[in-house]
Amino acid sequence: MEAFTTHTGRAVPLRRSDVDTDQIIPSEWLKRIERTGFGAGLFSEWRADPAFVLNNPVHAGATILLAGPDFGTGSSREHAVWALQDYGFKAVISARFADIFRGNALGNGLLAVALPAATVEALTSQVEADPTIEITVDLGAREVRAPGLVAAFDIDDFTRWRLLEGLDDVGLTLRHQDAVTAFEATRPGWLPTTVPVPAGVSEKH
Amino acid sequence: MNDPGQGIVHVVGPQLGLTQPGMTIVCGDSHTSTHGAFGALAFGIGTSQVEHVLATQTLPQRPPKTMAVTVDGALPAGVTAKDLILAIIARIGTGGGQGHVIEYRGEAVRALSMEGRMTVCNMSIEAGARAGMIAPDEVTFAHLRGRPHAPAGAAWDEAVAYWRTLATDDDATFDREVVIDAAELSPFVTWGTNPGQGAPLAARVPDPADYADPALRASVERALAYMALTPGTPLRDVAVDTVFIGSCTNGRIEDLRAAAEVLRGRRVADGVRVLVVPGSMVVKADAEAEGLDEVFRAAGAQWRSAGCSMCLGMNPDTLRPGERSASTSNRNFEGRQGPGGRTHLVSPAVAAATAVTGRLTAPADL
């Protein structure tokens, strides 16, 4: 994973709440087996409308998405994160993220930054008034900066360190292989496995 | 596809007895919360996390916050598990459970069958919670006993003894508590484009002007524009083109029985397309053994093979632009059932009654 330290860029103001992952990337895109190329499908239903904010040329090249609360609800599809990244976004700022989306985003190095609703509103209004302003998302300092505005955000130490270093989750966990093996040895024998059960051994099907 | 064991993972797992109390269950699908009905900690994960689980058998997690949703009293006649969870989501909102695991408690929850409990836990994700749980009890044990992967003999007794220790302590405290009075509930439907935008079937389409918060008002306006609904319209007057009965929320045998009971001896309204899709091949076979397929066909509904079908519009079962459905699935997002499609989430009983009249209808209205 690419490390995330600090990023400065222009933003797109998406004044919608409850943006679900079906909107971010519609289900027809889920049949692909690659992890790349999803940018073309990002918000594809909404982008069909020429008035949609992403179609406004003043926002071309923007790398930060400013969204309403409850961003990324619904389906667990990680394709939503891949689509945002493939389109060019490095960070999403919202008052609240759906848990699965946030996990998927931080796992892929797309920074999901939760700020108070009033702060997101201030940033959104500022970008609407002047689309050329730049916003900085500084993971090291745990703060978002815009002209005349500095806002601190929360992120746990482990996730921050992993993002700053660009570390791979699997590799980090495998350092604890001994503990995992010891835990697995305590598993009760009656817990199920996915080995097929011979026909006729059960009362119910 | 034609394997007799094929079906939606959230139907097949419990059916095989692979879902047991006290387990941690993850799957690359957000409705993994379904399995919490057995007192398992079960939640959906993304593709990279699936890779992590396959590589390490683990997943790094921070402890979630806890929320108790207590449903006191008994559900009135004609009010189902689906109505209950839709009412809960409308109360706490689509972000209400964010960061939390919900435990559903109280008399009305204890009185639910395992199918009903699965319907409730299934839609925890629609309330923003990754997982929802119900403490295992005699209903759980009776449902599990004798299933292919359930323990048997002495191991069964050992397992049950352990499962009995799993219920929340009487003096436990929660980060957040919500109390619902079951007696106040009635058949519930959604009118908007997220699962929190719902109301009793007896209500009217809301008026954006009644919402003080400008962001909320804008969201309601946008939803009503997409749904082509006029404020003040009685929900019972909303006409549909399509009825979908199925999905991991409501594709189990009890759901099909509830729909068949309404459709028995009745006819689907002219011009209404009705799809009945069992959640698994086993559910399909069970339904056919009971003759439910004949009830559906005789009423004019399509009896289909097992799968997700019109829940998410990933295959040819979709709404065309502007079409409107009453659907027993779990998401009424814009375009979820096909680009431009409009979805009202309902229970199997309401779906079946709606099929008969062509308008949103409860069985009691027939």
UniProtKB/TrEMBL annotation, chain A:
EC number(s) stated in the UniProt entry for this protein: 4.2.1.33
Organism, scientific name: Protofrankia coriariae
Name this protein carries in UniProt: 3-isopropylmalate dehydratase small subunit
Taxonomic classification: Bacteria, Bacillati, Actinomycetota, Actinomycetes, Frankiales
Keyword set, alphabetical order: Amino-acid biosynthesis, Branched-chain amino acid biosynthesis, Isomerase, Leucine biosynthesis, Lyase
Catalytic activity, reaction form: (2R,3S)-3-isopropylmalate = (2S)-2-isopropylmalate
HAMAP family, per the entry: LeuD_type1
Gene that this polypeptide is encoded by: leuD
Subunit structure as annotated in this protein's UniProt entry: Heterodimer of LeuC and LeuD.
Aconitase A/isopropylmalate dehydratase small subunit swivel domain mapped to chain residues: 1-116
